[in-house]
Amino acid sequence: MGDFAMKGLVRAILEGDCAAAASQAEQLLHSGASTNQIVVNGVEAAMSALDAKCTLQEFNLLEIMLAGRAVTEVMKLLYPAGAPRTDTKGTVVVASLEGDVHDLGKNIVRMVLTGDGYRVVDCGKDCSLAKLIETAEREAPLAVGISGLITSIVPQVRQVKDLLTGRGLNRVKVLAGGAALKQSSPARLNVDFVAESAFDTLHYLEGIAGARNE
Amino acid sequence: MNSLERIAATVQFRNADRVPVIAQVFAHAAKLAGVRVDDYVRDGETLARCQLSALKQYGYDAVFSVMDVNVETEALGSVLKYRQDRYPVVEQYALSGTSDFSALEIPDCRRAGRCGEMLKALCTLRSELGNEVLVVGCVMGPFTLATQLLGMEAALYLAIDAPSRLECLMDFAAEVVVRFGQAQLEAGAHLVLVFDPSASPAVVPPQFFREFELPRLRRVFQALAGSGALASWLHIAGPSGAILPYYPAAGANLACFDYCVAATKARDRLPATCLTGNLKPMTFVEGSPADIEAEGRTLLGDFRDRGGFILSSGCEIPPESAPENVAALVKAARGDR
Known about the structure:
The complex is a heterodimer of chains A (214) and B (337).
Chain A: H1 2-14, H2 18-30, H3 35-55, H4 61-78, E1 91-95, H5 104-115, E2 119-122, H6 129-139, E3 143-147, H7 154-166, E4 173-177, H8 186-189, E5 193-194, H9 198-213
Parallel strand pairs in A: 1-2, 1-3, 3-4, 4-5
Chain B: H1 3-11, H2 28-33, H3 37-40, H4 44-58, E1 62-64, H5 71-75, E2 79-81, E3 89-92, H6 115-129, E4 134-140, H7 142-150, H8 152-161, H9 163-187, E5 191-195, H10 206-226, E6 233-235, H11 247-250, E7 254-257, H12 263-269, E8 274-279, H13 283-286, H14 289-303, E9 309-313, H15 323-334
Parallel strand pairs in B: 1-4, 4-5, 5-6, 6-7, 7-8, 8-9
Antiparallel strand pairs in B: 2-3
């Protein structure tokens, strides 16, 4: 029953069926599965399957948004308000910088990272550099992720690494992505990594976490 | 041959004196003229003056009356935020997922919002340029307009949760697009670019494009062609490879392809459609004239034996691009006789 329901949860998330995903998670809880088991074997397994599709380029925003909405519902069930998740893989701060009010890409990254077990602190859109750096100082994240749909934010992106270093946050990686920024390179943007997709971000973070655990 | 004749011949795969070059210069024209972008997108005379000045500087083959992606949604009641020297953004969408779409009324596409200013720009551009240079208007694709009326997330969820309601909204959007496009042709546009970024496979699956957007694009292009448009130009940025084969059925005979689609793939999938592309927009900001010329020459080589090609960027040339890079694009085409 547990295994069958777990597969049902994975399938419901992949199909973007919000109600079915929540119902399967509820069944799993009632049948004695732990929150951790549901996250690892259900939510994270579904994210891995989506990741594989992304690698094959059979991937679009609609599909990932629907899966993300289903994951959000399951997470709400597993971690009700007031009971935040504590067993995370680490913290990532994300933002769209000042002047850029497009936040869909950033929201997708947030969904993917949350679904895979990271704690994501979202600074929102049109975020000032000062707010981003202050948040990084407070949260001590693994990385800061900047999503950019317009080219005019590039001068701001170039400053992030140096501003973090100035606050002693040398170990915090700076990641960039989004339709405009992914046309550039890490060297030109003065960042550690330029991601092609949300899952590309995830792979890079896994590499960092792996290196730090060794 | 003048610019208009050159483009008309190329779209029909007839011989031209050289490959035409269309730089997708929109607000970059404002930057060149020292005009704030928020002024450029609100005043038709200013827009036309900046476009004419940029044409004089660069000598490419087309000018655009393109403000931003929010002209139609503003005309339909969305509230925009105008920011200094930037494109405006939607602050409050006109509709929500629970709105009654069947009660929507077509706005006066000659006066509502900034429509009148856009038509004024076209009128000025055409009276200044006559039939020497291509004058291009612009409308949103039906699905893109739907996303601009509801917000992207709400529109995508509606596609799954209540597809018939989304179709109702897209039918309305297609009608608005036709009326606005026809008004642009009457005002002086030689053709109307249908800009449809939300229909990109990066956003929705190819099946969605085929079932939802294609029939409505067909309606739009048929109506615009019937109103005298010189060509039917579809512009979908991003990884459009999977939907290219549907373009002829939509009625498009001129199509953009972005930097992430290989020229060979675009050629193979659209053998009888005039193509325009596909330099990476960021190269106009970060690259050098030598980079642009080299990439331009490669593209010209890719299409030399086929024809039906207009040299351009894959999407808008960013406003802050280096002028010498835009000049290098034109030089690449002009040097390829």
